[in-house]
Sequence to fold (806 residues):
Amino acid sequence: MNINSAAKRKKKRLYLVLTSMTILAVVIWLVLRALQDSISLFLDPTELKARNLPEGEHVRLGGLVAIDSFIKDEDGLTYHFDITDGEETVSVMTKEPLPDLFREGQGVVVEGEVRSAGPFVATRVLAKHDENYVPKEVMDSLKERGVFIDPEEDI
Amino acid sequence: MIVELGHFALILACLLSFIQGTFPLYGALKNRGRLMSLSAPAAYGQFFFVAISFFALMYAFIVSDFSVVNVARNSHTLKPLLYKISATWGSHEGSILFWAFVLALYGAMVAYFGRRLPKSFHVTVLAVQAMVGFGFYLFLLLTSNPFERVFPFPMEGNGLNPLLQDPGLAFHPPLLYMGYVGLSVTFSFAVGALIEGRVDAAWARWVRPWTLLAWCFLTAGLSLGSWWAYYELGWGGWWFWDPVENAAFMPWLVATGLLHSAIVVEKRDTLKAWTILLAIIAFSFSLLGTFIVRSGVLTSVHAFATDPERGVFILAFLFLVIGGSLLLFAMRADRLQAGGLFAPVSRESMLVINNLLLSVAALVVLFGTLYPLLRDALTGDKITVGPPFFNMAFGFLMIPLLLVMGLGPSTNWKRADLVGLLGRLKFIMLAALFATIVIFYIADGGEIMAAVWLGLGLWLLLSTLFEWAERVKLFKPGSIARIFRQPRASMGMSFGHLGLAIAVIGISGTSYWNIEHQDIMRYGDSASIGGYEVTFRDTDGIVGPNYTAVKAIFDISRDGKAVTTLEPEARVYMTPPMPTTEAAILSTLSADLFVVIGEANNKEHTEWAVRLYYKPLQIWLWAGVAIMVLGGLISLSDRRFRMGAPTRGYK
Fold:
């Protein structure tokens, strides 16, 4: 009776381990596959120009919307603007809705694919902001390029 | 004056938590009654003082006392009262104080409702609760003092992000925190059980109501946040796999698993070590989520560098709590004897599969959330892991989960007959398949995944109803009485599963059959979407308490008959100056019509950018999660699970 139940327990444990291993293996495979398609690198205009990424690579580009660069097409739905980090500037075109906070001189992050010629075509213009209304990555990049100096940091 | 009072009260609460976490525990180990009897009064006192502290901060916000840094940074005199109050928990410092407040509230509740628990166990649980609290008080007092003064003080505050000035979001954090912190009780019970070295059916009965309560709050808080994103962010999205959302979603996944594994402990006296481990992990996720979100570490590892004090404290605290409890688990887990055996096909196995899938899902979400942080630290690349990753990896795990969920409740404990089970349910499967094909035909096709999710939702819906009908012997004499005489826990289970089924059906509709239309419209222009005719009538200027707005008026008709008018707004807030869109939504059982007004396209303000969204079955999602919470509450009212641990349940 006792031996029997111990054997049963071992068998049960074996099933459990086998099931878990199978699930885990499948999941890891899936995770790695899914990850490849959905990672996007964050770059500022200088990095985008410097890195020579392969065409079609999914990236996010962040910086400030250059002053006096915003143009709306005749149809009222296609927008053109430049994103700058103080050193380099990239022209962007999009048909996506612009977030409420989109404005010249303000921080912005756009998503899209790397193209060898023509403007950067944004498939999404991000509305996400932290409490200081400038996306974190943009702020870091601007600090790095010396465009923005944090008044609190340098006292 | 009141602000200083709040500060002192916080220090007192900190001291009391230290007392509550040490002396009674020593008393419990050495069996000294007088030391043990310190425990409950300390818990009440700690709650009393932290409540004073919390309300003192709230008072500073209400009277706009800008000599307090925290108030000056996050409030403004012109803000409506509700948002002055909600700003109390809106900032980093305030939210941590709120955490400590809720933690002490739960501690006091355990002290009161658990008074019939075995004395030493009660004391141990309260001590663990107090130790966690002590960490929070220290964190507040040493690194994030919400009562810090500033001189000279500003005449006006910075204001609160207008997007956050919304009733939905005012109540979203408190609900979520009640959930997060509620898991601390489960954690304390688990660590208490490890210290005492005993887990049994009675333990499971004590723990379950607290887990359920936390789960209800978490579910409600998560869905309120999702609902807010849906109507406030202006493009009809409701889940973004944003790190902040993930931080709340991971504890939810583990808590859901915990609810199910605790059933096995109670009914079959097995899976004990696993359940304890889940309880520890669930609370660890709560802590991780709170700190990572609130300290801004997730958006950038540099947050640690700019605020090293907080960062190091957080790391040390997480290490102590999570590492310490896991170490204790490793040392004591072998004392927890496994009880009942079960066959590979049995209710227990179904619940084990549920637990495995939910835990792996939580791990997947964790990986996707932390991977950018890891990459940043290792290579300096800043990356984002996008929704496709989560949708694919998480979605894939949910398919078997939903399949098994339909079978689980109809499966016998110990040993079940799979062939017989499938035989009983084969008509349900065929019915779900048939309904899916019919709906797909009516909807004129769509992506294949839409059919998969719709089919799974229908399968779960029908199988849950079928199991319920079998259980109450529907259509047999006396079935009405049996419906109401069901144990509340079983009723709650039916509602919970039904709610998820309805939500899944809603998700398939709104994710795969939505229609988007954007255009420049003049007054009098019409657009048609999803069978509706949307006519732009006029715009109107309005002035709110702290904003001005343009209100657009749209006449909505269907088949030539007027349905309603929708009035979306484009608002501009004054402090901080910031535009927001207020969508107007027409909700019906079959779909939501969602109208957003953008900017004027010409100087005469007669042409406007307009966005229209048609979201089928959107309301099913909200109804589904509401039913899930209802199920949780019904289950909570089960007589067996009184928080007061009935004496007759424990011998």
Q: What stands out?
A: Residues 646-651 of chain B have pLDDT under 50 and may be disordered. Chain B touches chain A through 51 residues (CB under 8 Å). The first strand of chain B starts at residue 382 and ends at 385.
